[in-house]
Amino acid sequence: MDWFTKLPFALVCGVLLASLVPESADGCEFCLVPTLTFTEQVKQSKAAVIAEWKSATPPVGDETGQTEFVVQQILVDADGLLLENESLTVNEFISGTKGAPFLLINDNAKETLAWTHPQKLSPEAREYIARAPSSNVSTTTRLRYFLRFLEHPDQDIAIDAYGEFARASYEDIKAISTEFNPVLLRTWLTDASRDATRRGLYGLMLGCCGGPDDARFLEAIIVQPTREFRLGIDGMMAGYLMLNRAQGMTVLDKAILDNQEIVSSEVAALAKAMRFLWDFEPQCVPRPQLQQAMRKLLVRPEFVELTIADLRRWQDWESTALMPQLLADPKHNFPSTRRTIVRFLLAAASEENTSISVQQRTQAQRILDDLSKQNPGLIEDAKRLQYD
């Protein structure tokens, strides 16, 4: 089932870096956010209309040419200057056929003629935009509308509908999960002709609505050996863990975290899925199990800094005992890494920390005392530079 496409190195690096960073509270955690959606373009404009192409004058000499449109539907008119069935002139030559629909956006005002490059619309896209709920409507209501267009044959529509989901919070996506179709989602996930950037979203959606068969389906994909970067595998891991819970974490722990030959992108994807569960679905996998699994990333130098930051945020004070070994390891002898370790120890030793045992706090303070003798500037730097 090797349907993941090979990607340019720059894209792989960019996406891998994004997967290492803890999720934002805004937007889908496993989506690559595309360009502005139609709704966002309209919302940010002073004027927006659906208009039909009427005529065009080609450029002559230094003249840019012009195109005349007839307004059919007014989407935004902040200054009250527009009328349906009136003509608008754009200072740009745009070829077209009479009656062809276009989306016109104006960020300034009609009087300036500063319309952006008109976007040609298919009849289906025209209807899609015309019927789309406004940005003032609740996100869940809007998502119910866009759900049916996620894999529309018109790519402008499909990309726009995906963009709406990519910008939605997980809570809003989950709120409409009863309307998701697991059979359809599995089809989209295994169809090599589909846009690979959407697999993270579809995997997450399947986790919201699926059952045991879907868990087995996702597991078969996740554990297959690979040396390639797999777009969306992080969302599939999250969906799988939502369905198979603690047992699923045990499976991925063995298949990925205990596998020293596995590519870093797979480890990064699982780390992102674990962060997601910790923040959004804490009932799926016991927190001690997540903490124990996250600690295993400390043996991989490329993950040490972010992992320690995660463990500090997760208040995993059992990791305190591991800090001296990390400090002594020459593979971690980087200023930013050492500062990250010190910040963990400072949090553990803090008198305000009520979630730590006396023994663990004493241990953390002892390590800090030793460090202050060896390298007093390190502790001050860690306090002064809160983030690296």
Describe the structure concisely.
50% of the residues lie in helices and 9% in strands. The protein is an alpha+beta fold. The two termini are 40 Å apart.
Q: Per the principal axes of the C-alpha atoms, what is the gross shape?
A: elongated
What letter string, H or E per element, gives the SSE order?
A: HHEEEEEHHHHHHHHHHHHHHH
Number of strands: 5
The percent range for strand residues is: 5-15%
Helix content: 40-55%
* Sheet of most strands: 5 strands, antiparallel
**Strand order in the largest sheet:** 3-2-1-4-5
Number of helices: 17
Low-confidence stretches: 1-25
Gyration radius, rounded: 26 Å
Overall structural domain count: 3
**Whole-number average pLDDT?**
92
CA-to-CA gap between the ends? Answer: 40 Å
By secondary-structure content and strand pairing, the structural class works out as alpha+beta
Structural account:
The two termini are 40 Å apart. Strands 3-2-1-4-5 form a 5-stranded antiparallel β-sheet. 50% of the residues lie in helices and 9% in strands. α7 (182-190) runs antiparallel to α8 (199-209), α8 (199-209) crosses α10 (233-257) and α13 packs parallel to α15. The protein folds into 3 domains: 1-33 and 167-290, no CATH class; 46-130; 300-388, no CATH class. It has helices at residues 9-20, 38-43, 123-131, 139-147, 155-166, 170-175, 182-190, 199-209, 212-222, 233-257, 264-280, 287-295, 304-313, 323-328, 335-349, 358-374, 376-384; strands spanning 47-57, 66-77, 87-90, 101-106, 119-120.
